[in-house]
From TrEMBL:
Protein name: ATP-binding cassette domain-containing protein
Organism (species): Pseudohalioglobus sediminis
Molecular function GO labels: ATP binding; ATP hydrolysis activity
Domain ABC transporter: 6-244
Source superkingdom: Bacteria
Amino acid sequence: MSDVHIRVSQLTMAYGSRVIQRDLDFDIMKGDIFVIMGGSGCGKSTLLKHMLGLLSPASGDILFNGESLVSASAQQRDRMRQRWGITYQSGGLFSAMTLAENIALPLQLYTQYSAADRDDIIAYKLALVGLAGYQDFYPSEISGGMRKRAALARAIALEPEILFFDEPSAGLDPISSSLLDELIVQLQQSTGATVVMVTHELPSIFAIANNSVYLDAKTKTMIAYGDPRELRDHSDQAVVRQFLAREASAAVEEPL
């Protein structure tokens, strides 16, 4: 139990009377790179929003280090969120702010660092994601891949113990996507953070994930849980094997 970082317990998600997923029950261990996967419309992003406390479940609970998110007070939730870093599909940077100003926001809100100390932290975080010297650039002045990395620099500003990603590779070319995957792994290894990611990108899933859950839109529940490589090769659910092997033949036939 001590190594369980996040526990999703008998979680049912619904919009009014329409059930999205029911009876979700899985653990995310400390240091996992955990992927939430499944076909379109299965509820992947909805689950992430529940885990972030943006939506309330119809029933069940989500626990962080044994502490309930569902029953937590607003003050307790705020304290929990200070230990998280979050990046959104679009990057979520404020367009009217420079990269330095974007990264400074959580430092200004939640720490007592001096302006000089903040500047040092900002420079260090940008260097970690390969953007040294880009403090004064605006999001519109850099590429999509660079914006994703800048958003990651902001997400790690407070040394979070959990990093959440919503489709981090969306809109990126394969090379930029692969570089972002490598960066996520490097950051996880250097910080020990637990990573939770929504993605349908197979290269990313197999490159970085060591644990996963598969949400099924038809049955409205999870039908597989574990290492995605094991699920691809040995799952007793044909739909899971097909999902995880769907590009295998194309990859084999791709010309050099």
